[in-house]
Every structure is written in structure tokens, then in C-alpha cells.
Specification:
Length: about 140
């Protein structure tokens, strides 16, 4: 039986998301948090399903576990360009294209832990995040 793994991409302090919390990006206005399937990540043979609390977090996928500062370079039509810096962990530049409110293409490049990265992700919203299971005590 295949096991499904979920990751939660929270709104981090000092992260790229702080920017959008105050000013939502018009490009991503129709997208929704939830369970997103991500394909195209380096080294991943199968798409990963991730619980995303803020869709803008996908723009800094390479540094999703780091505290980063960010700025929007351009947001027009269906595209948004974001540049971010994560201190000693590296930096990146991402272009997010909204194909539909449930489908995104993310081109990202930069430096992560001293090494270059450059790849394209496909992200597709597949539903709501699973509810946490609570164990009943006796």
C-alpha cells in the first residue's frame, strides 16, 4: 500500500509570505490554500502532496523551510515575479504563472546552501488539507 506524505508550508515570520499578508497579490487572488500536488522538484520521482496555508509560499519552494525576506518585482496579468533572500541559506528568483486558479507553473532559480538551482514546478490544487486525526484516550 502506498503511503502519502503531506508537508505543511506555514506562513513564516520574516518569510516571503509576510509581504502578501498585508498586500495580496492580484495574480494569485483566485487561488486558495489547501492540498497542492507539486511535480518537477529535483530528485522527486513522484509528485508530492503538500498542505499549503498560503499559495505564495510555493514561489520560494527551494527555501520553504527557511526564514526569508522577499519583494515582488512585477505582478501583471497571470504572472508574478518574486525575488527573495534567506541570509546564509541562499536566495532565489521565481516567476509564478497562474494557468487556472487550481494550476500554477513556477520557474525558480538561485542559490541554496551554496549550490545553484534552476527548475520548473507544476502545482495543482487537489483539495482541502486533511483534518488532523485525534487519538481517543481510554
Amino acid at each position: 500500500m502506498a503511503r502519502t506524505h503531506y508537508l505543511v508550508l506555514p506562513l513564516g515570520l520574516g518569510g516571503a509570505l509576510a509581504l502578501t499578508a498585508a498586500q495580496p497579490l492580484p495574480t494569485l487572488a483566485e487561488t486558495q490554500p489547501g492540498l497542492w500536488e507539486i511535480s518537477g522538484a529535483p530528485g522527486a520521482k513522484l509528485p508530492a502532496r503538500q498542505c499549503v496555508t498560503n499559495v505564495t509560499a510555493l514561489a520560494r519552494f527551494e527555501h520553504r523551510t527557511k526564514a526569508c525576506s522577499a519583494k515582488v518585482l512585477k505582478s501583471a496579468g497571470s504572472r508574478t515575479s518574486i525575488e527573495y533572500s534567506c541570509g546564509g541559506a541562499g536566495f532565489g528568483h521565481s516567476e509564478v504563472e497562474v494557468i487556472t486558479p487550481r494550476s500554477l507553473r513556477i520557474s525558480t532559480q538561485g542559490i541554496s546552501d551554496g549550490l545553484p538551482f534552476n527548475y520548473v514546478l507544476q502545482a495543482r490544487r487537489v483539495g482541502d488539507c486533511p483534518k488532523p486525526a485525534f487519538a481517543a484516550g481510554h
